Amino acid sequence: MPALIFDPALRTLSGAGQVLQLAATESDLLGYLLRQKGGTANRRALAVYMLGCHINPFTDLMGGLVTHIQGRIAAMLPDCGDTIARSRDGQSYRVSPAIVMHSACVRR
């Protein structure tokens, strides 16, 4: 799996000589997941961060956004596999270890 470099300042995801410009919402979601321990966040916490409120557990706004981002990344790098995986129970998401934060953006 190729390494993908996420740069939140530029809102880009790059790898294999390709650069994907992310929308603000896409960048926020990816950045939030990368800052979480193990790259994992539950759906409710993600919704509060992204939307500023709790969501109905039967509404899958986050799932739609994750699927959208995965589609854009897969179009750029078809061999990258699942970049954001959903847990079996559907209540949390985990970002692939292949995606790393740009070194200038990592807190030391």
Care to give the gist of this entry?
The protein has 108 residues and is an alpha+beta fold. The protein is built from three helices and seven strands; from the N terminus they run βββαβααβββ.
H/E topology pattern? EEEHEHHEEE
In spatial order, strands of the major sheet run 3-2-1-7
Helix content: 25-40%
Provide a count of the helices.
3
Quickly give the structural class. alpha+beta
Question: What can you tell me about this protein's structure?
Answer:
The protein has helices at 24-35, 43-51, 61-76, and strands spanning 4-7, 12-15, 18-21, 40-42, 84-86, 92-95, 99-101. The protein is of the alpha+beta class and 108 residues long. The longest helix has 16 residues, at 61-76.
